[in-house]
Amino acid sequence: MTAYEPGRGAASSQRVLLIEDEAETTAHVSESLREAGWIVDAAVDGEDGLERASRGEHDVIIVDRMLPRRDGLSLVGELRARRVQTPVLFLTAMGSIADRVAGLEGGGDDYLVKPFSSAELAARVGALARRPAAPAYERTSLQVDDLEVDRLSRTVTRAGRRIEVLPLEYKLLEFLMLNAGRVVTRAMLLEKVWGFHFDPRTNIVETHISRLRAKIDQDGAPPLIVTVRGAGYVVGAV
After folding, report:
1. Beta strands in 131-224 (DSSP E)
2. 163 pLDDT tier (thresholds 50, 70, 90)
3. Lowest-confidence range among 6-10, 83-87, 159-163, 185-189?
4. What residues have CB less than 8 Å from 192, skipping those under 6 apart?
5. How does DSSP classify residue 37?
6. pTM of the model
7. Which among 82, 213, 215 is positioned nearest to 161, based on CA atoms?
8. Which domains does the chain have, with CATH numbers?
9. Rounded CA gap, 122 and 11, in Å?
Protein backbone atom coordinates (compact mmCIF):
# COMPACT_ATOMS: atom_id res chain seq x y z
CA MET A 1 0.00 0.00 0.00
CA THR A 2 1.21 3.48 -0.85
CA ALA A 3 0.10 6.31 1.41
CA TYR A 4 0.57 10.05 1.19
CA GLU A 5 -0.01 12.64 3.85
CA PRO A 6 -2.74 15.17 3.06
CA GLY A 7 -1.96 18.67 1.93
CA ARG A 8 -4.38 21.53 1.46
CA GLY A 9 -7.90 21.11 0.15
CA ALA A 10 -9.24 17.85 1.55
CA ALA A 11 -9.95 17.15 5.19
CA SER A 12 -7.18 15.16 6.83
CA SER A 13 -9.47 12.14 7.22
CA GLN A 14 -10.28 11.91 3.52
CA ARG A 15 -8.84 8.82 1.90
CA VAL A 16 -9.09 7.52 -1.63
CA LEU A 17 -8.36 3.96 -2.76
CA LEU A 18 -6.81 3.73 -6.23
CA ILE A 19 -7.07 0.30 -7.88
CA GLU A 20 -4.77 0.49 -10.90
CA ASP A 21 -2.13 -1.85 -12.31
CA GLU A 22 -0.18 0.68 -14.42
CA ALA A 23 2.66 2.13 -12.33
CA GLU A 24 2.86 5.35 -14.33
CA THR A 25 -0.86 6.04 -13.97
CA THR A 26 -0.73 5.21 -10.26
CA ALA A 27 2.12 7.67 -9.72
CA HIS A 28 0.38 10.41 -11.71
CA VAL A 29 -3.01 10.01 -10.05
CA SER A 30 -1.50 9.71 -6.57
CA GLU A 31 0.54 12.87 -7.00
CA SER A 32 -2.43 14.80 -8.39
CA LEU A 33 -4.68 13.80 -5.51
CA ARG A 34 -1.95 14.34 -2.93
CA GLU A 35 -1.65 17.92 -4.12
CA ALA A 36 -5.43 18.26 -3.69
CA GLY A 37 -5.09 17.11 -0.07
CA TRP A 38 -5.96 13.43 -0.22
CA ILE A 39 -4.42 10.41 1.45
CA VAL A 40 -4.03 7.85 -1.36
CA ASP A 41 -3.88 4.08 -0.91
CA ALA A 42 -3.07 1.94 -3.95
CA ALA A 43 -3.87 -1.63 -4.97
CA VAL A 44 -2.45 -3.18 -8.14
CA ASP A 45 -5.00 -5.91 -8.94
CA GLY A 46 -8.69 -6.60 -8.62
CA GLU A 47 -8.60 -9.14 -5.82
CA ASP A 48 -6.40 -7.01 -3.57
CA GLY A 49 -8.49 -3.97 -4.44
CA LEU A 50 -11.72 -5.76 -3.56
CA GLU A 51 -10.37 -6.85 -0.20
CA ARG A 52 -9.24 -3.32 0.69
CA ALA A 53 -12.36 -1.65 -0.67
CA SER A 54 -14.58 -3.97 1.36
CA ARG A 55 -13.17 -2.62 4.61
CA GLY A 56 -15.09 0.65 4.21
CA GLU A 57 -12.07 2.78 5.16
CA HIS A 58 -12.14 5.11 2.14
CA ASP A 59 -14.26 8.07 1.09
CA VAL A 60 -13.88 7.40 -2.65
CA ILE A 61 -12.65 4.44 -4.71
CA ILE A 62 -11.03 4.86 -8.14
CA VAL A 63 -11.08 1.71 -10.28
CA ASP A 64 -9.59 0.83 -13.65
CA ARG A 65 -11.81 -1.38 -15.81
CA MET A 66 -8.92 -3.59 -16.98
CA LEU A 67 -7.20 -5.20 -14.00
CA PRO A 68 -5.36 -8.46 -13.38
CA ARG A 69 -7.00 -11.22 -11.31
CA ARG A 70 -10.44 -9.51 -11.27
CA ASP A 71 -11.71 -6.87 -13.71
CA GLY A 72 -13.00 -3.54 -12.43
CA LEU A 73 -16.61 -4.10 -13.43
CA SER A 74 -16.75 -7.41 -11.56
CA LEU A 75 -15.00 -5.81 -8.58
CA VAL A 76 -17.54 -3.01 -8.25
CA GLY A 77 -20.44 -5.41 -8.76
CA GLU A 78 -19.15 -7.53 -5.88
CA LEU A 79 -18.74 -4.44 -3.69
CA ARG A 80 -22.37 -3.47 -4.27
CA ALA A 81 -23.46 -7.06 -3.61
CA ARG A 82 -21.66 -6.76 -0.26
CA ARG A 83 -23.58 -3.51 0.36
CA VAL A 84 -20.42 -1.39 0.25
CA GLN A 85 -21.77 1.98 -0.88
CA THR A 86 -18.50 3.95 -1.08
CA PRO A 87 -18.65 6.18 -4.20
CA VAL A 88 -16.77 4.66 -7.15
CA LEU A 89 -15.12 6.48 -10.04
CA PHE A 90 -14.14 4.35 -13.02
CA LEU A 91 -10.88 5.66 -14.52
CA THR A 92 -10.21 3.74 -17.71
CA ALA A 93 -9.26 3.78 -21.37
CA MET A 94 -12.55 2.06 -22.22
CA GLY A 95 -14.42 5.15 -23.35
CA SER A 96 -17.27 4.13 -25.66
CA ILE A 97 -20.86 4.97 -24.75
CA ALA A 98 -21.51 1.26 -24.18
CA ASP A 99 -18.52 1.09 -21.82
CA ARG A 100 -19.73 4.13 -19.86
CA VAL A 101 -23.23 2.74 -19.58
CA ALA A 102 -21.91 -0.64 -18.43
CA GLY A 103 -19.78 1.02 -15.76
CA LEU A 104 -22.59 3.15 -14.39
CA GLU A 105 -25.12 0.33 -14.56
CA GLY A 106 -22.62 -1.93 -12.84
CA GLY A 107 -22.50 0.19 -9.70
CA GLY A 108 -20.15 3.06 -10.59
CA ASP A 109 -21.03 6.61 -9.58
CA ASP A 110 -18.88 8.41 -12.15
CA TYR A 111 -16.78 7.55 -15.20
CA LEU A 112 -13.65 9.32 -16.48
CA VAL A 113 -11.80 8.24 -19.61
CA LYS A 114 -8.01 8.21 -20.05
CA PRO A 115 -6.22 10.42 -20.94
CA PHE A 116 -7.66 12.80 -18.38
CA SER A 117 -7.07 16.18 -16.83
CA SER A 118 -5.60 16.09 -13.31
CA ALA A 119 -7.78 19.04 -12.36
CA GLU A 120 -10.93 17.30 -13.58
CA LEU A 121 -9.99 14.10 -11.75
CA ALA A 122 -9.49 15.96 -8.47
CA ALA A 123 -12.76 17.84 -8.98
CA ARG A 124 -14.73 14.66 -9.67
CA VAL A 125 -13.23 12.85 -6.66
CA GLY A 126 -14.04 15.86 -4.49
CA ALA A 127 -17.61 15.96 -5.77
CA LEU A 128 -18.11 12.28 -4.99
CA ALA A 129 -16.73 12.75 -1.50
CA ARG A 130 -19.13 15.64 -0.87
CA ARG A 131 -22.16 13.51 -1.60
CA PRO A 132 -23.66 13.34 1.86
CA ALA A 133 -24.48 10.13 3.60
CA ALA A 134 -28.10 10.13 4.67
CA PRO A 135 -28.31 12.60 7.59
CA ALA A 136 -30.32 11.80 10.66
CA TYR A 137 -33.24 14.00 9.58
CA GLU A 138 -33.47 12.52 6.07
CA ARG A 139 -36.25 10.06 5.45
CA THR A 140 -35.00 6.50 5.58
CA SER A 141 -38.21 5.14 4.08
CA LEU A 142 -40.05 6.31 0.97
CA GLN A 143 -43.62 5.24 0.28
CA VAL A 144 -46.20 5.80 -2.45
CA ASP A 145 -49.43 3.85 -2.04
CA ASP A 146 -48.31 0.28 -1.21
CA LEU A 147 -44.84 0.67 -2.74
CA GLU A 148 -42.05 1.22 -0.19
CA VAL A 149 -38.32 1.80 -0.49
CA ASP A 150 -36.18 1.22 2.60
CA ARG A 151 -33.13 3.43 2.09
CA LEU A 152 -31.12 1.84 4.88
CA SER A 153 -31.35 -1.72 3.64
CA ARG A 154 -31.87 -0.60 0.00
CA THR A 155 -34.83 -2.93 -0.35
CA VAL A 156 -38.08 -2.50 -2.27
CA THR A 157 -41.45 -3.97 -1.31
CA ARG A 158 -44.99 -3.67 -2.64
CA ALA A 159 -47.92 -4.76 -0.52
CA GLY A 160 -45.39 -6.57 1.64
CA ARG A 161 -43.89 -8.49 -1.30
CA ARG A 162 -40.11 -8.16 -1.67
CA ILE A 163 -39.06 -6.96 -5.12
CA GLU A 164 -35.53 -7.74 -6.26
CA VAL A 165 -34.01 -4.83 -8.16
CA LEU A 166 -30.57 -4.24 -9.64
CA PRO A 167 -28.40 -1.35 -8.34
CA LEU A 168 -29.30 0.99 -11.22
CA GLU A 169 -32.98 0.08 -10.96
CA TYR A 170 -32.88 0.89 -7.25
CA LYS A 171 -31.18 4.22 -7.91
CA LEU A 172 -33.77 5.09 -10.55
CA LEU A 173 -36.72 4.15 -8.35
CA GLU A 174 -35.28 6.00 -5.35
CA PHE A 175 -34.94 9.20 -7.39
CA LEU A 176 -38.49 8.88 -8.69
CA MET A 177 -39.80 8.26 -5.18
CA LEU A 178 -37.89 11.23 -3.79
CA ASN A 179 -39.75 13.31 -6.37
CA ALA A 180 -43.12 11.61 -5.91
CA GLY A 181 -45.94 13.67 -7.41
CA ARG A 182 -43.56 15.69 -9.59
CA VAL A 183 -42.72 15.07 -13.23
CA VAL A 184 -39.11 13.96 -13.68
CA THR A 185 -37.67 14.55 -17.13
CA ARG A 186 -35.47 12.18 -19.11
CA ALA A 187 -32.61 14.68 -18.88
CA MET A 188 -32.91 14.77 -15.08
CA LEU A 189 -32.76 10.98 -14.90
CA LEU A 190 -29.74 10.80 -17.19
CA GLU A 191 -27.88 13.27 -15.00
CA LYS A 192 -28.97 12.22 -11.52
CA VAL A 193 -29.11 8.45 -11.98
CA TRP A 194 -26.54 7.75 -14.69
CA GLY A 195 -24.28 10.78 -14.24
CA PHE A 196 -24.56 11.78 -17.91
CA HIS A 197 -24.36 15.49 -18.62
CA PHE A 198 -25.19 14.75 -22.25
CA ASP A 199 -27.72 12.65 -24.11
CA PRO A 200 -26.10 9.32 -25.10
CA ARG A 201 -28.81 8.83 -27.75
CA THR A 202 -29.83 5.47 -26.38
CA ASN A 203 -33.08 4.18 -24.89
CA ILE A 204 -31.37 3.49 -21.55
CA VAL A 205 -33.99 5.41 -19.53
CA GLU A 206 -36.94 3.84 -21.30
CA THR A 207 -35.45 0.35 -20.93
CA HIS A 208 -34.93 0.70 -17.18
CA ILE A 209 -38.37 2.24 -16.64
CA SER A 210 -39.88 -0.73 -18.49
CA ARG A 211 -37.93 -3.21 -16.33
CA LEU A 212 -39.01 -1.46 -13.14
CA ARG A 213 -42.64 -1.49 -14.19
CA ALA A 214 -42.47 -5.20 -14.97
CA LYS A 215 -41.19 -5.89 -11.46
CA ILE A 216 -43.40 -3.45 -9.54
CA ASP A 217 -46.74 -3.90 -11.31
CA GLN A 218 -47.07 -7.68 -11.00
CA ASP A 219 -50.23 -9.63 -10.22
CA GLY A 220 -52.56 -6.99 -11.67
CA ALA A 221 -51.41 -4.24 -9.33
CA PRO A 222 -52.28 -0.73 -10.58
CA PRO A 223 -49.34 0.97 -12.33
CA LEU A 224 -47.44 3.45 -10.18
CA ILE A 225 -44.83 4.82 -12.62
CA VAL A 226 -46.75 6.95 -15.09
CA THR A 227 -45.45 8.35 -18.37
CA VAL A 228 -46.35 12.00 -18.92
CA ARG A 229 -46.25 12.31 -22.69
CA GLY A 230 -43.70 14.80 -23.89
CA ALA A 231 -42.55 15.58 -20.35
CA GLY A 232 -41.19 12.58 -18.44
CA TYR A 233 -42.27 10.24 -15.66
CA VAL A 234 -43.99 10.55 -12.34
CA VAL A 235 -44.65 8.27 -9.37
CA GLY A 236 -48.01 8.94 -7.78
CA ALA A 237 -50.53 11.61 -8.71
CA VAL A 238 -49.24 14.86 -10.22
Report:
1. 141-144, 147-150, 155-158, 161-163
2. very high
3. 6-10
4. 175
5. T
6. 0.57
7. 215
8. 15-130 (3.40.50.2300), 141-235 (1.10.10.10)
9. 14
